[in-house]
């Protein structure tokens, strides 16, 4: 009983650790997609301010031309008209200076906006790289946990095989006890005891009395079979394999006419963790060169195409050891594979 409880508890625990880890891995995969979407938004946000910076980096301003007309017969020094033109020129210079200042400020604003947008994009790119790194790290962790889980399940499976082999030996023994022609046959042993004890009794009676009577024969024919009484402990055996109060019951399958047959083992507790979580991802993840080009990522990216699937988890262990026993354990060292 002890090996079953301990081994099963370890298999359950390791399976749950993998299940939890895969769930966390799935969340990190989704986070990569979110970060990539934000990166694309940040990339698009650089276009307008940086284009504006380029556009405002050069400009051309024009002023009107001024004409000074003088009639010296009326104004000997042309002071009046000159003052008017000077006033117009001063106004034009002030206007031109204002336009220059406005355009310079517009360029400085565009430069600042472009710089900030580029900084946001760079930070967003680092977020993408960090999220991808987190996903890869978690995947590697889950692969290691999966290896431990497989080892625990296969260790329990080996013990399950041993238990079922012992149950098979027990069944064979019980069949021989109930049959005939075997040393273990109860009916054969009873017949032998009946004959042996009766003969021994009659011989002893004859030695003691010098003759045999019908009463003596009848009396010697009554033989106590109590010494041959066997307790096959069937209820104990069945209770050991299939206890009514246990969360896990061992089921020893019997091969059919084709030789196919297996014991089945479910690990994990409850519907939420009694499942396998598989992924169609290939590792390592391919790198998106658009990150180096500071361009939008092509969506959907590789990470967003990764699909995690939960399926009912059952391990199968082959009964016939000549038919590739423990197929389920043949991938223990291959941490890139899931057991279905």
Task: Quickly describe the structure.
With 340 residues, the chain is mainly α.
Structure description:
- The chain is mainly α and 340 residues long.
- It has two domains: 2-63 and 78-175 and 257-329; 179-252, no CATH class.
- It is 59% helix and 5% strand.
- It contains eight helices and four strands, in the order ααααααβαβαββ.
- Helix 1 (2-45) packs antiparallel against helix 3 and helix 2 (47-55) runs antiparallel to helix 3.
- Residues 331-340 have low confidence and may be disordered.
Strand and helix layout:
Elements: H1 2-45, H2 47-55, H3 79-178, H4 186-209, H5 214-220, H6 234-241, E1 262-265, H7 270-273, E2 275-279, H8 290-293, E3 308-312, E4 315-318
Antiparallel strand pairs: 1-4, 2-3
Helix pairs in contact: 1-3, 2-3
Termini gap: 27 Å
Counting DSSP E segments of at least 2 residues, the number of strands comes to 4
**Content-based structural category:** mainly alpha
In DSSP terms (H or I, runs of 4 or more residues), the helix count works out at: 8
> Segments where pLDDT lies below 50 for 5+ residues?
331-340
Order of helices and strands: HHHHHHEHEHEE
User: Going across the major beta sheet, what is the strand order?
Assistant: 1-4
Largest sheet: 2 strands, antiparallel
Report Rg. Answer: 47 Å
| Morphology call | rod-shaped
Mean pLDDT: 80
Residues in β-strands, percent: 5-15%
Total discrete domains: 2
What level of helicity do the residues show? Answer: 55-70%
């Amino acid at each position: 009983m002890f090996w079953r409880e301990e081994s099963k508890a370890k298999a359950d625990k390791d399976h749950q650790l993998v299940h939890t880890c895969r769930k966390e891995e799935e969340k990190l995969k989704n986070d990569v997609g979110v970060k990539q979407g934000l990166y694309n938004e940040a990339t698009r946000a650089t276009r307008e301010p940086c284009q504006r910076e380029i556009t405002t980096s050069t400009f051309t301003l024009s002023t009107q031309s001024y004409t000074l007309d003088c009639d010296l017969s009326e104004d000997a020094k042309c002071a009046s008209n000159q003052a008017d033109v000077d006033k117009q020129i001063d106004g034009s210079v002030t206007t031109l200076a204002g336009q220059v200042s406005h355009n310079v400020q517009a360029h400085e604003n565009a430069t600042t906006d472009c710089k900030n947008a580029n900084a946001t994009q760079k930070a967003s790119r680092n977020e993408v790289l960090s999220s991808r790194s987190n996903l890869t790290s978690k995947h590697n962790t889950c692969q290691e946990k999966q290896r431990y889980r497989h080892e625990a399940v296969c260790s329990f499976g080996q013990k399950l095989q041993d238990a079922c082999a012992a149950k098979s030996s027990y069944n064979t023994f019980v069949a021989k006890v109930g049959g005939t022609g075997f040393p273990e046959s109860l009916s054969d042993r009873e017949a032998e005891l009946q004959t042996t004890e009766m003969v021994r009794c009659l011989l002893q009676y004859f030695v003691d009395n010098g003759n045999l009577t019908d009463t003596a024969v009848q009396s010697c024919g009554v033989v106590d079979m109590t010494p041959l009484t066997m307790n096959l402990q069937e209820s104990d055996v069945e209770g050991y394999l299939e206890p009514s109060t246990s969360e896990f019951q061992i089921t020893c399958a019997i091969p059919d006419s084709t030789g196919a047959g297996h014991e089945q083992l479910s690990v994990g507790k409850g519907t939420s963790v009694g499942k396998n979580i598989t992924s169609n991802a290939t590792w390592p993840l391919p790198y998106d060169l658009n990150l180096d080009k500071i361009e939008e990522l092509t969506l959907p990216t590789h990470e967003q195409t990764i699909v995690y699937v939960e399926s009912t988890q059952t391990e199968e262990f082959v009964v016939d050891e000549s038919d590739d026993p423990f197929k389920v354990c043949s991938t223990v060292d291959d941490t890139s594979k899931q057991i279905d």
